[in-house]
Design goal:
mainly alpha, 2 domains, two-stranded antiparallel sheet, two-stranded antiparallel ribbon, 6 helices, 4 strands, extended
């Protein structure tokens, strides 16, 4: 028996019982693909149905925003001056939106905010994979 809940108390303000959602996904089988979850959610009586955007216009707009986030995430640069320079991200997310990473590093407060966010992501990674003893030495470095 498991007890399911939403990570941050809710799922983007949408009202759905996390326990029922988890049970519906588990009913699909040992592993559930996104396609199977969407198919199950098509039933208006399912709890999953409440969590997906069924208005195609809104769904398409949300998808394009997701794609825009992916563009900024995957775009990297490499210094042409140094051949051994590692690739670096061009943009980083800030409270103002996507900003050029190089410009963030020039501003102490924005660099500190980026560093704080990076530490938060490391802690989240640690919590997500805490059961992997093979990473214990690395996790010990993360406060």
């Amino acid at each position: 028996m498991i007890t399911a809940s939403w990570r941050n108390g809710d799922f983007f303000g949408r009202k759905a019982d996390p326990q029922r959602v988890a049970e519906e996904i588990m009913e699909i089988g040992e592993a559930a693909t996104p396609e199977q979850i969407v198919e199950r959610a098509k039933d208006p009586e399912s709890e999953l149905h409440k969590l997906l955007t069924w208005d195609d216009t809104k769904a398409a707009a949300n998808w394009r925003k997701y794609e825009a986030r992916q563009i900024t995430y995957h775009l990297i640069i490499k210094e042409t001056v140094r051949e051994d320079a590692p690739p670096a991200r061009v943009f980083s997310i800030t409270d103002k939106g996507y900003q050029q990473t190089a410009l963030i590093f020039q501003k102490t407060d924005e660099r500190e905010a980026l560093l704080k966010r990076a530490w938060g992501e490391l802690r989240a990674f640690k919590a997500k994979y805490a059961m992997l003893q093979e990473l214990a030495d690395i996790f010990a470095l993360i406060d």
